[in-house]
Amino acid sequence: MEKLSRNSRVVAITKILTENPNKVIGLNKFSDLLNAAKSTISEDIVIVREILEKLQMGKVETIAGAAGGIKFIPGIEDESRRKFAEEICEMLKDKSRIVPGNFIYVTDLMYDPQIVSKAGVILSSEFYNKGVDYVVTVETKGIPLAYEVARNLGIPLVIIRRDNKVTEGSTVTINYVSGTNGRIQQMSLSKRSMKPRSKCIFIDDFLRGGGTAQGIKDLLNEFESELIGIGVLIDNIGVTQKRVDEYISIVQLRNLEDEQGLEVKPSNFIL
Amino acid sequence: MEKLSRNSRVVAITKILTENPNKVIGLNKFSDLLNAAKSTISEDIVIVREILEKLQMGKVETIAGAAGGIKFIPGIEDESRRKFAEEICEMLKDKSRIVPGNFIYVTDLMYDPQIVSKAGVILSSEFYNKGVDYVVTVETKGIPLAYEVARNLGIPLVIIRRDNKVTEGSTVTINYVSGTNGRIQQMSLSKRSMKPRSKCIFIDDFLRGGGTAQGIKDLLNEFESELIGIGVLIDNIGVTQKRVDEYISIVQLRNLEDEQGLEVKPSNFIL
């Protein structure tokens, strides 16, 4: 390939970095692809780093050593972050979301890539450099969000199932008590899905009583693994007795009495 | 903000475009954010377009008119595409993937963001400009891949459930016959999840007999909607009688007799 201009090279570098969040990429890769000396690529990277940081679009970190290179940490500017949380609050306030049983319909939010990708950047920002091995969720509604967090952290997703599937091979199943309704439920995870002694975070749509999170802790114990963090889109603060104490959320919500609607506000984590 | 250099502007434009696939972004947005005239931004965009096309990293299309602007269509170079399909084949050949019942364990592939994001770009490339409204899948294993396709197409995901959840409000439920084992199963979808007269595509991990795809067609009928395309990671060509005829896949697989392993090859769509 002929020589490319600096303009062209920084476009290609930006594209590759943003598509491989939290993955170390050696300068050789850029050097080969773009037919330029490593010293030239290093200068290009300075430009990419400076403008991304200036616009709060993420960080480019340098990793020294033989296995070194650069990696991209996704970011979102403070104002967009607050605006995003406020937009979610507005959407949740819509009374037509309340379905029989005083539950709130949030499926459309959880399956909208525009929303999920932003929420994923916000939640994952808490977990870089914590040595997380897997992002764990329970089927079904939290899967896209958990996937986005896993993609940003550059690690695999693990989905716990409610039932046993023949395609999963041997599984470990536990019973747990749902924090909200006190009912006994099951969680099942393939023995192959995780290496022992892993560090995991749990990502979901809602946190109510924390029973599911407690169940995941117990299940991870069976894999000699550890739950080191929890992140959700919505914290139901109407349920005051939680079985877990440390978690982050993007918005907080409380059902008002007599189906009069909801009180919703951005979480402290966002402000 | 002070004036930025062209190098800096093209980095920011690339970042915004790649994070908003298939979404029309007005030049005003770039002009405001980067404090530059629209004519300058237009020149920047030419640079971004040329290098992304040259490296087969995607296309930047111009949409004329009042609601116009530019949009980014993700792409993957032909060689990476083939290499990717061959890597999947290698992974699938591993005999330890065969679990009791002669099923193949593919959960690790379907939950790995590095794999799913590439497969998502490849499958979505078939469906740009087809006016797709929703990407549909059935829980659970295909969700991350379906989400990636939805993200690339800039449209919402719809997840069909096996059971009825209280948090979904009123649902439509149908019975269908699984193509592989002939058993009757259920699919359930919230009435709120889709506008009537929508065009949908179905994305999943495996296609065996096509019974699930046929079930989805029937369920979409209940929403006065239409299935206009199917894409899967793996086509099991050992099952020769399919209930659907048009679909794309990335690799083809056939179980050999007596659990002797698998025959796997890239699909024609890839080559």
UniProtKB/TrEMBL annotation, chains A, B:
Residues 124-252 form the Phosphoribosyltransferase domain. It comes from Clostridium gallinarum. Pfam families: Pribosyltran, PuR_N. The keyword Heme does not apply. This is Pur operon repressor. Residues 6-74 form the Bacterial purine repressor N-terminal domain. Belongs to the purine/pyrimidine phosphoribosyltransferase family. PurR subfamily. Homodimer. The keyword Ubl conjugation does not apply. InterPro entries: PRTase-like, PRTase_dom, Pur/Pyrimidine_PRTase, PuR_N, PurR_Bsub, WH-like_DNA-bd_sf, WH_DNA-bd_sf. Keywords: DNA-binding, Transcription, Transcription regulation.
